[in-house]
Amino acid sequence: DINSSRLYRYFDFGDTNIVNIQNSDKINWRVQDAKPDVIFHLAAQPIVAKGESNTLDTFLTNVTGTAMLLQAVEQFAPEAVFINMSTDKVYAPWSMPLSGYTEESPLGSDSPYACSKICAEDVVDMYKQRGLNTVTIRAGNVFGGGDFGYGRLVPDVINSLNTYSVIRFRNAEGSRPYQYVLNVVYALLTIAEARYKRELLKPWYNVGVDKCISNFALAQKLADAYDIELLCQHEDSPYRETHSLALDCTAYNKEFGKLPFSLDYGIEETVQVYKDMKNHGKRYTGKDLFMEVWK
After folding, report:
1. First-last CA distance in the chain
2. b or e along 79-107 (b: 16 or more beta carbons within 10 Å of the residue's beta carbon)?
3. pLDDT at 285 exceeding the cut of 70
4. Of 62, 84, 86, nearest to 73 (Cα)?
5. 239 contacts 173 by C-beta, under 8 angstroms
6. CA nearest neighbour of 62 among 38, 43, 47
7. How far apart are CA 124 and CA 19, in angstroms?
8. Using an 8 Å Cβ cutoff, are 136 and 121 in contact?
9. Whether 47 contacts 150, CB under 8 Å
10. Less CB within 10 Å around the terminal CB: N or C of the chain?
11. pTM of the predicted protein model
C-alpha cells in the first residue's frame, strides 16, 4: 500500500514496509530481501469512480504496478506462489448468463477500472506462461469493518448513519454478490495453500456467495443492525454500471467447499467493528479513531 491509509497510524502490522506499487526499485529490493514463498498481490486502485476521474493513475497502479511486481518475482523469487486479487468487474457486462458468470465467461469492460483489471490479468497470465506459479481470484463486492473507501456502498452507508445524513443511491435496486471480507481471506488462504502443494484445476477462480442482494436491501440491513433510520435519496448514476451482477462459484466450491461466513454474520460483525472504532477507539489509540479516519 501507499502511505495514504490512516489506518496505518493506529494498528501495529508488525514487519511492515510501505512501498508504492509504481516504484520498481523498491519493489525489487523488497522481493529480493523477503524471498517470499507466497505473495498475495492485493495492491490496487479499487474504486470505480476514481477510475473515471483519474484513469491514468488507475492504469499505472493496476497494470504497470502488477507488471513491475511480477518482473521482480520472476527475477528474485521465481518459485513463489503468486495470488492475484482480481474482481468480478472483468466480465463483459453485456453477456452475463442467467446463472451468473463462470470463469469461462467472456471478459470485457466499459469502465477504466474494469479495463485496468483485465489488463492486469493479462499480465499475470503472460508470466504464468513464462513459468511463474500464479493463480487469480475474482471476487466482487467485499465488505467489512474498517473500510473507509469513498464511493463504496457500505462505508458510505456507515458514514451516513453516524452523521444522520442522507445517502444518495445511484443504483438502489441493482443487485450484487456482496460477501464478508473474511470469506475472501478464507479463499485466499485455501487457494494459496493448495497451489503451494499442487497444481490447481484452474488458473483463476470465482469466489463468492450463492445469493445476491440489492444495494438498498444491504443498506437497510446495515441500518437495522445499527438501529438507526436509513435516510436515502435516489439519483441517476453518472457511471456505466451493470444493474445486476452474479457469480457462478461452482468451481471453487467443488474443489474447496463453500465459503463459511453468511451475509447476516458479516453485517453484524462489520457493524460491531465500526461501533468499536467510534465508541472505543481511545482504548487502542488515545484518539477518536472513527472520526480521525473519516477526515
Report:
1. 19
2. ebbbbbbbbbbbbbbeebeeebbebebeb
3. no
4. 84
5. no
6. 43
7. 20
8. yes
9. yes
10. C
11. 0.87
Listed in sequence order, the residues at least 6 apart from 183 whose beta carbon sits closer than 8 Å to its beta carbon are: 142, 207, 208, 209, 259, 260, 261, 266
- Using alpha carbons, list the distances in angstroms from residue 86 to 162, 163, 197, 244, 245: 31, 33, 22, 19, 16
Instruction: With beta carbons less than 8 A apart as the criterion, state whether 228 and 163 touch.
Output: no
Q: Which amino acid is at 118?
A: I
CA gap 100, 85 in Å, rounded: 20
pLDDT range class, residue 17, cuts 50, 70, 90: confident
Give the Cα separation of 284 and 187 in Å (integer): 29
For residue 102, the model assigns a pLDDT of 95
Residue 290's alpha-carbon distances to 92, 142, 149, 279, in angstroms, are 37, 20, 13, 8
CB atoms inside a 10 Å sphere around CB 217: 15
Cβ-contact 281, 287 below 8 angstroms: yes
H-run or E-run covering 214? strand 213-214
The SS3 assignment for 242 reads: coil
123 phi/psi in degrees, rounded to 5: -65, -45
Alpha carbon 268 to its chain's center: 20
